[in-house]
Amino acid sequence: MASDDDVDQGAMADDWAAAMAEQADVDEAMASTVSFDELKSEVLKQPPGSPDLDVILDIPVSISMEVGRTSITIRNLLQLNQGSVIELDRLAGEPLDVLVNGTLIAHGEVVVVNEKFGIRMTDVISPAERIKKLR
Q1: pTM (2 d.p.)
Q2: DSSP secondary structure, 5-58, as one string
């Protein structure tokens, strides 16, 4: 007779197998997408005599994922300790914001690959939309 632990372990193994199969599908789809060099040549098409933009491609940028935000008073901030819970402005299950140097560029969901956290982009903000937000 199978114990609850055996059933739970089997269900967990099935869940992981499904997640890994989904990741393999994503990896396969990524392999069939446009390469970086192709994308770079398309995005950076320049008229003759314009400056070479290759010099900026190696500049490091800071990328961060934001779960949510909130505002609290300094009094409440000073009262925080281990175990405190801060309510955020986002519902559970909503996509995370992906920020590059503080600018929203995409939304995504948390994934675990090889025992490390990552983020799968679910919606990338177009460059035109990002420029509109800067104005």
Answers
A1: 0.53
A2: HHHHHHHHHHHHHHHHHHHHHHHHHHHTS--HHHHHHHHT---TT---GGGGTT
Whole-angstrom distance, CA of residue 120 vs CA of residue 74: 35
Residue 17 clears pLDDT 60, i.e. is over it: yes
CA dihedral of 15, 19, 21, 25, whole degrees rounded to 10: 150
- Per-residue model confidence as pLDDT tens digits over 84-116: 999 988 888 889 999 988 888 999 998 988 889
Using the structure block, give the residue that is written with the tokens 């679910």. 122
Residues sharing a CB contact under 8 Å with residue 134, sequence separation 6 or more, in sequence order: 103
pLDDT > 90? residue 22: no
How is the beta sheet containing 63-66 ordered, strand by strand? 63-66, 96-100, 103-113, 116-124
Helix (H) or strand (E) holding 68: none
Q: What is the DSSP letter of 105?
A: E
